[in-house]
Amino acid sequence: MAKRRSEILIDILKSEGMRYTAQRQAVWDDIRDQKHTEHRDAEEIYNHIRGKGIKVSRATVYRTIDVLVKNRLIRKMDLGDGRSLFEPSTNDIYDDRHDHMICTESGKIIEFYDQELDFLQEKIAQKHGYTVVRRVHQLFVKPVK
To answer: Model's pTM, two decimal places?
Structure first.
């Protein structure tokens, strides 16, 4: 039987020496329940949770996000300008296989998947005696004029 969300979070927090709280559960629930194509920064997540009437500190939100990223429950997307956005992780290697194009002019994020890219990266890894276990691809783009 699959573990419930709270059981998963309790186990992870325990392994990190942190205690389970309703506020930490609210952080994970908020990120997991967002649309898959939605990418938000920690401040947006904090404001969204507070907007629901849940009393939570910024520090709790930031610390919880760090633990969730470390344990691959959510994914972090570094925008290269000091900001990071977060999205839910499916923990399924095939469902999670997507990349991002980030428009440097508009900030728009486009998710995409390209099978040729999968084959190429595996070929490169094998050439050097490895196999790909995880990947992160971010393309910073601008419109063609």
So the answer is: 0.74
Distance CA 142, CA 25 (A): 37
Domain limits of the chain? Answer: 1-89, 97-145
Provide the pLDDT for residue 3: 61
pLDDT bin (cut points 50, 70, 90) of residue 53 is very high
Q: CA-to-CA distance for 13 and 52, rounded, in angstroms?
A: 23
For residue 98, the model assigns a pLDDT of: 73
pLDDT tens by residue, 83-115? 888 988 765 444 556 788 888 888 788 878 888
- Buried-state track 15-41, b at ≥16 Cβ within 10 A, e below 16: eeebeeeeebbbbbbbbeebeeeebbe
CATH number of 97-145: 3.30.1490.190
Residues contacting residue 49 through CB under 8 Å, at least 6 positions apart: 23, 26, 27, 30, 56, 61
Q: Which two tokens stand for residue 21?
A: 């709280």
Hey, what CATH topology would domain 1-89 get?
Arc Repressor Mutant, subunit A (1.10.10)
